[in-house]
Amino acid sequence: MVFTVDNGATRTILSRKMYDRLLEGARQQLRGAALLRGAGGAYIKEHGSAAFQVRRGRMELELEMTVADIENEALLGCDVLCGSDNVPADIILSKGVIVINGQEMPCIQRSAVDYARKITVAIDTSVPALSKALVDVFVDRRNTDDNAGCAEYI
User: Fold this and answer.
1) By the 8 A CB rule, do 45 and 69 touch?
2) Cβ count near 106 (within 10 Å)
């Protein structure tokens, strides 16, 4: 199973698809349900929570996970990343590991860095709370942008 680190998620989430693939003995009884919202604010169907044993090599963790209808296999949220007993997880990308409760979990960095662009506001603008505004910006470009077919849009 692939966990995606999501420092914007307050809870660790297991997809319903992965939950359904668990063997009967490993499939925990789910309890409770609350309103779960995605990054864009839309509600996500939640099926409940349970404690699950996560094993990888010699590493073994018990994680409280919420089962929900998400596209990722699992999201590793701030409830785990912020740590227990005030000991946060360490994400060490140079070593390719995340250290949780003193145990190392392999970590493969995948990102859309090639597609990310620095955007700078053309002129300092103050936007009142709870309002929307269109502002002029400068977008850093790369020589390969014209070949990628993305020269006309952000």
Assistant:
1) yes
2) 11
Quick one: tokens of 10?
């307050």
Q: Count CB-CB contacts under 10 A for residue 11.
A: 19
Nearest to 101 by CA among 119, 123, 84, 121: 84
Query: Does residue 114 sit in helix, strand or coil?
Result: coil
The answer as to whether 127 is a domain residue is: no
pLDDT tens profile 107-140 = 887 765 556 667 788 888 888 888 888 888 887 7
Please say whether the beta carbons of 14 and 80 come within 8 A: no
pTM exceeds 0.85: no
Q: What is the CATH number of the domain that holds 77?
A: 2.40.70.10
pLDDT tens readout for residues 64-86: 899 999 989 999 998 888 876 77
Tally the domains of the chain: 1
